[in-house]
Amino acid sequence: GDVTSLLSDPHQDKTWFCASADHVFRSTDDADGWELVATFNGELVETMASCPGRPGMVVATARIAGTEASRVHLSRDFGESWESPAEFSFHVEDVALGAVGGRATAFFATDNGLFRLQLIDGAVPESVLVEAAAPAKPFYAVEVVSDPGNDLQVAVAAQELGGVFLSFQGGKPGTYQPWGLHGVDVRLLRAQRTPGRRFLLTGAFATGEEPGAGVSRMELLPYQVSP
């Protein structure tokens, strides 16, 4: 079937997760073989993310069949068992994980704004203000750029050609600044890491035979964009 998400585990060599329909599969031999680790009946698994520095933690978001609602699924043991800590009445477009104040935190780009969820028992999703003029600004993508142990950097790409926003303060509400690409239909955000350097990459959407805006890259220093 169609593969909707593919995730490389950063803590175990040769370990991958992939989503297809309502299933999550795992490979421990670089995709030579796959085993079924979860089935979420009546849902379509769309995105997955792992948390650097938190071995075993995997989050998957799934659209509930026939609705715009999304459900969050969490595993703390490399997919052996799962729980469902949260559900949104609107669609989750993307998810990224990082450690904030020593606690694993999930950031969700949704059709109703940016949300974060501490991955601890009893936590509930919190709305994160990105732009004061549009509290429920919809987003296509979110990415955590920092490495484990460093101050968290969180980037989000707005829907409706709204550009890219970046926080150098742990993704806290009110700390996001616009960093260009307004008017570009950015749908993907990815972190690129090389020894001693970090980059934020953006992927733009194009239709038909349009050439599109392609991929853009910005180097990030710990507390600012590189000049």
Topology, element by element:
Layout: E1 5-8, E2 16-20, E3 23-27, E4 35-39, E5 43-50, E6 58-64, E7 70-75, E8 83-88, E9 92-100, E10 103-110, E11 113-118, E12 126-128, E13 139-144, E14 154-158, E15 164-167, E16 176-178, E17 186-194, E18 197-204, E19 215-220
Antiparallel strand pairs: 1-2, 2-3, 3-4, 5-6, 6-7, 7-8, 9-10, 10-11, 11-12, 13-14, 14-15, 15-16, 17-18, 18-19
Question: Can you walk me through this structure?
Answer:
The chain has 227 residues and is an all-beta fold. The chain contains no helices and 19 strands. The chain has strands at 5-8, 16-20, 23-27, 35-39, 43-50, 58-64, 70-75, 83-88, 92-100, 103-110, 113-118, 126-128, 139-144, 154-158, 164-167, 176-178, 186-194, 197-204, 215-220. The strands form five sheets. The chain has a four-stranded antiparallel β-sheet, with no helix packed on it. The protein is globular and about 45 Å long. The relative contact order is 0.10.
